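User: I'm curious whether this sequence folds into something compact or stays loose and floppy. Could you predict its structure so I can see for myself?
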Amino acid sequence: MIIQTQKRKRLLAAAIGFAMASAMPAISLAQSSDATIRGQGPVDTDVVAKNAATGATRRTHTDKGGSYALVGLPPGTYQVSAGPGTERTVTVTVASVFTLNLSAQQAAAAAPAAAANAKDLGPISVSATTLQEVKTSEVGTLVSLRQIDTTPAASRNFLEFADTVPGMVFTRDSNGNTSLRSGAQASSNINVYIDGVGQKNYVMPGGVTGQNNSQGNPFPQLAIAEYKVITSNYKAEYDQLSSAAVTAETKSGTNDFHGDVFGSYTNTRMRARTPAEDASGEKAQSHEKDYGFDFGGPILKDQAHFYIAYEGKEFNSPITVTPQGNSTLWPELPASAQKELGPTNLPFKENNWFGKVDWEPTDRDRIEVSGKYRDENAISGVGSNSTENAALNTRNTEKRFDIRWDHSTDSWFNRLQATYEDAVYNPSPIVLGYGASYTDYKNQNSTLLVDGASPLSFQNKGQKGPAISDDFTLNDVQWHGDHVIKMGVKFKSVKLTAQDAGDTNALYTYAVGPDGTESIPYKVQFGNPIPGQNPVATSRDKQFGTYIQDDWQVDDHWTFNLGVRWDYEETPSYLNYVTPAGVVAAINSQDPNAPAGQTYAQTLAKGGVNINDYISTGNNRHAQKNEIQPRIGFSNDLFGDEAHVIFGGWGRSYDRNLYESLQVEQTKSVLSQPTLLFNTPLSPCVPSATCLTWNPAYLGIPALQALVANSTAGKEVDLINNNLKSPYSDQLSIGMRNQVGEWNTSVAFVNIKSFNGIVYTLGNRYPNGAFWQGGSQPWSYGIPGYGSLIIGNNGLKTKTNQFLISAEKPYTADSHWSASFAYTYTNAVQNNDNQDPTDQYAFDFSTIHAYPFTGAAVAKHRLVSTGSLDGPWGFVFGAKLTLATPIPDLGLACYQTPTNQEVGSMNGGGCQSVSIHPPGTGKFLVGGKVFGYRDFDMQATKNFKVWGNLNGYVRIDLLNAFNWNNYKEYVENWNALSTGQRAVIYNSVGDITGYPRTLKVTAGINF
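Assistant: Here's the prediction. I'll summarize afterward.
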């Protein structure tokens, strides 16, 4: 009876705690990077864990059944004890839950294994067993500091090592820009949590702040201790993502002073030529410099510590300019444009700082204060089909400040955390004035070459504001097993800023046909500000959220992870926007191309567009309130020995719409980018206020602005659906982990379906409601007195099935080596033929729902293997092999006679939405040419003692040792489809992904 009463009291306490927490405003902010140790020990006994490096202590108490749970442990090595004879020294890793049973017999049995995994903590050397998390239902993998230190690395971006996790792809494109994505979803759909703080980019693609079109690093790699990648079935505490979660723990100061200084270098002479340089006979000058330091130590031994890290970059990366699209038209480009083709380079500079102070005034309290500053300057926007005349001067800055207070008792743990962030992205054109763009005469949506900056090249985007969160964990709840119940409430107020155009540039577009390029443009786009109005859109977003998560260990076999979260966000500039009265009046006016009495609204209705779904009154839009996200997982330890575990789960996860997609209604209205058409033989248009006869005087921005002065002619109108929803994904997984000798293996099947991605389509319709007529789209049939109507809706979808297989032999000091294998099979489709999943414009069909599902731009087979070895005389060797089958080319193949009907994958212009794999370019050792990406990297590090505790090292990285060309671009010949010949091959003189063979030298000292 007493036991039952205690159970009721504990469950009541949990219910009351959750009710109190739910009453507070919230947004999910603090996703834990801490570890949990749970298990059995002597009955009614204190369990104490002391960090061997910092002296930090955590304690709890076993219940009457001997169960205990230590929560909120920063990753590290701990001496855990439940009394004499039970002492264990173990290492716990980031964002994981471990089982550790404490008894004299188990402590004695673990001693030999511990001796095989000694940890060097400065002058202290302790023997520790690294605990393995096997009972989680999450699909994910740890990336350890050993892997970061020994794996060959092309960059100092710590996310590069996530590539070793099945299902993840880290890429460095030809511009040097890096990105991380999972499955078929875009990089925007991931989230990275550093010390529990989400780094989400609310305005632009890239997933995290600062990673949109950047060669830089989101965080100093020196400051990262380790991180975990969760590709599916994450717990309820993770928010604002529909793809993968990366949760990282930073380094802290210890009771001993430690520091590192390093520098690395490579240049033109230390790399092979790119394919474009081979073709041109000219090698572009390039160099890469990485340098930095970190330093940490005690302020008060066992109580307070400090840590600071800095990393800098100076790059000058080679890049190639080459046309895209229909290769048969490339020779028809004008000579002036063809002179801009070939190799060039991109300069870049970054400074990246991080600092932290921690203080433990008692063995129940911990306070951490940390800050980050990142500053980048780059020349960007060049490469692929963009010439140097399209270059941008890009400034990218980011500041973050965090403070948190942890308080623990025997039965509960609480974390109160406050943060502030300020991130700005500001590119501007280097060449002002007018430029040229060249398109396929059959497909105006296919750009062959861009030789100048458009008005959209100028941007000013960012996010700034505070946040506060509280997470409360009950670690002493029993009911049909042991429960660790975590709940959280959070709130964030962030000011979002977006300006997506300027008035200093105009871009003229020319049609390229089989007989050459037309001498006059068929359209021009330019900036036209409204005097006295601010072209910058701002919105003070309010983000709320709450969650509860129960990690329920029923017995030695069954564990259930049961959670649910709810999120809510208000974006005032979208919710309170009022469609201009002039636009509404024009839509409801006579359609000048239709019979008398037919308004443009009626024309749209004939074409399936109910314009009332897009006209906002300022009070007919409402924030979504139903973002309820259940997340259910299980694991079954078949024999209770953690050697064979079946796991699985299902969950829903909501992401968010990027602000750059929500603000276009406002910015397009204040600083419009009118598009005027000109009648040309290859691109005729119906004479109107926006379809003119070409005059050479129009080759200037003032003359263009004079054409639309006090007028809305050619002014694009962007309208968003009044019932816009947030994107989300449903994730289903099942798998099994096995321990085979020293190897940890995992096999999992994952099904992920994503929904409600926002996308913009052409709203224009012909007077009869048709979207296709004469094989053409109604680009010149916009809103009367305005330009084209662009409408935003939910509708982008992906469907992904993956088999994720991994095998890892962890490093131990006894064996001196480690190895890992990560294989991913992916079958993914999407309902958009855009190669870039972050591009949210789709103009090839009438609506996004008319798009067929085609293969996504993901390799079907991908293998990443790594290894490290302690060699003689202080050498440490590492290697990494990456193999992947070709990524399909997504696009619009125009080779058939227009039908004016959208049927299946064919649009009314006779163009087919396609996803076509080019043939592989090579083999690995044996087999045929099946791979589209091959890379083998090696590194060798020589460690040596300088004096006392001062050590030095020299490291050589050989990247792409076999100089395999990993082509990025495609040569398309759609006419070959009609003859059954190869329509897509790799462009053998275009840009490549990654590096040519490159030698990089690094030297450093540490103590």
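Summary: Residues 339 and 386 are 13 Å apart (CA to CA). The longest strand covers residues 342-362.
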